[in-house]
């Protein structure tokens, strides 16, 4: 059984603040992490872009400068706790672009029918 964690997605001026277990996320080294303590630097606002060519509620998540995005580490088994890396996203040059499965994330609202 795959565990689907609850995330908090907050709309901000320049993107979205994603929180895992109430902790805002950001990049440390090449990993996306949740910051459990307040820090002056660290938490980021992300660009979340729908990818309907990959299915309903499917998105990519990128840094504000679009230099990198969320990528599930390939050795993971798809369960909660798999490391998420911040790496340049790989996509085809086609329209619409095609992304790797490790770069795609599904968002489903839990406060309404989906």
UniProtKB/TrEMBL annotation:
<protein>
    <submittedName>
        <fullName>Uncharacterized protein</fullName>
    </submittedName>
</protein>
<dbReference type="InterPro" id="IPR031755">
    <property type="entry name" value="Inhibitor_I66"/>
</dbReference>
<dbReference type="Pfam" id="PF16850">
    <property type="entry name" value="Inhibitor_I66"/>
</dbReference>
